[in-house]
Amino acid sequence: xxxxxxxxxxxxxxxxxxxxxxxxxxxxxxxxxxxxxxxxxxxxxxxxxxxxxxxxxxxxxxxxxxxxxxxxxxxxxxxxxxxxxxxxxxxxxxxxxxxxxxxxxxxxxxxxxxxxxxxxxxxxxxxxxxxxxxxxxxxxxxxxxxxxxxxxxxxxxxxxxxxxxxxxxxxxxxxxxxxxxxxxxxxxxxxxxxxxxxxxxxxxxxxxxxxxxx
Amino acid sequence: xxxxxxxxxxxxxxxxxxxxxxxxxxxxxxxxxxxxxxxxxxxxxxxxxxxxxxxxxxxxxxxxxxxxxxxxxxxxxxxxxxxxxxxxxxxxxxxxxxxxxxxxxxxxxxxxxxxxxxxxxxxxxxxxxxxxxxxxxxxxxxxxxxxxxxxxxxxxxxxxxxxxxxxxxxxxxxxxxxxxxxxxxxxxxxxxxxxxxxxxxxxxxxxxxxxxxxxxxxxxxxxxxxxxxxxxxxxxxxxxxxxxxxxxxxxxxxxxxxxxxxxxxxxxxxxxxxxxxxxxxxxxxxxxxxxxxxxxxxxxxxxxxxxxxxxxxxxxxxxxxxxxxxxxxxxxxxxxxxxxxxxxxxxxxxxxxxx
Lengths: 214, 355
Description:
The complex is a heterodimer of chains A (214) and B (355).
Chain A: H1 3-15, H2 19-31, H3 36-56, H4 62-79, E1 94-99, H5 107-118, E2 122-125, H6 132-142, E3 146-150, H7 158-169, E4 177-181, H8 187-193, E5 197-198, H9 202-213
Parallel strand pairs in A: 1-2, 1-3, 3-4, 4-5
Chain B: E1 4-8, E2 14-18, H1 19-37, H2 44-55, H3 78-81, H4 95-104, E3 111-119, H5 127-140, E4 145-150, H6 166-171, H7 175-202, E5 207-213, H8 218-234, E6 239-244, E7 257-258, E8 261-262, H9 268-278, E9 282-284, H10 295-312, H11 336-350
Parallel strand pairs in B: 3-4, 4-5, 5-6, 6-9
Antiparallel strand pairs in B: 1-2, 7-8
């Protein structure tokens, strides 16, 4: 089996959302002498990308996303012994995510958190109606390199701008990327308030986070 | 230099494009809908008609004589009395006055009474107030007056409700527990909707408008379909309008089914037959606007989806048209050039029965 075929087998196993299939595929790839980092990046992570796209297209659903993420974890565990100490447990980056103060909408933001988490990021989901200072405090506490903010109402949207201002005032803006989203948010709004990116949906949020942080 | 025509981006920004570029965007938007929904393309004539509508020189356009359609209305009277910087214009007025203004001044063909929170669950503690207001409004009005609210199943999860938040459970890989939480919430939501509507019907309501079904995913749709079914059995003549929250039913549970059909992942043309089967009189399909694409791209996509929904629907379709839906840009007060063009396109090309 060529390397490309092995990567496809790994990716397909993730898309099947079956832990057994992923474990078997990882073992096979390992036996073929493929480096653990390649197995993860070009096989398992590529599969998770496909899972995210299929979720957005209504072909796979949230439980499947979680099952695929669980299967990926099981696959990575098999590789742990062959990787530098703690490398398997290392997350891509730390992201603080939440819905801004005054806004009780939770579901879209939770889907974004779930997709980021299942793509390998360490996500601290602050929930909804989050006091703006809490975003800053959590960034300081976790050393996060990105803040994600959702708002589903035009009345709460300005909270995103306020957090950016607070990050500047507290000397953190240069250390933290800011992603905004939610129904009334747009690329234009993101540009206007000085956010680093805008994401239209959960899979785009994952793509933008990878572009900015990796 | 080729003539350029004014249109907008999905975020409302004005742009100027040539006829060729507009047609290309219409085709791209259509192709996206065809790909996602596995539905037929628009014909060449229909694309030309959409192009004609977009490049019409008037700021505001209307349908051809004889093609007028009824307009139903949602969000109660909040458009008038809302004053929190949202889409309300902050005119202090009672809900009776608001309903009558929609009937007598704004030309609404149906109207609804809605509560300021506009979700079913918070109506329970103030049901007596809602019943009294419905009765007074009915005594003063002629057009069908429904009771309108959002199913909003999110209100049944912590911290707003009794059931553990499925989002938190999912993130902790507790998939079955998350699904059970949604199943419990759906049962309570169905029960609450039916309980509320029994009382509103006793107060003279002509029916119910379910606004933004599916906002909390497939469980939200499941609960709403069961509520529609139950109400239809109890009130054979009541008017039931079922409006959706978005174009795709998000699969948060993933396995909930109605009449043998899994609800997660359904597009408008797949939602319509189920809504009709449950007993609704009218279906309100939604297509979301992509703010990073042009009005032409969004309109081509929205009309393609809605045309397929109209074709598949055994009941009339009143398409949702407004801020961020139906090809209309995402703006607090959507620009009339885009609203009127998108509405004309929905009537004359997609063949909707109303708006």
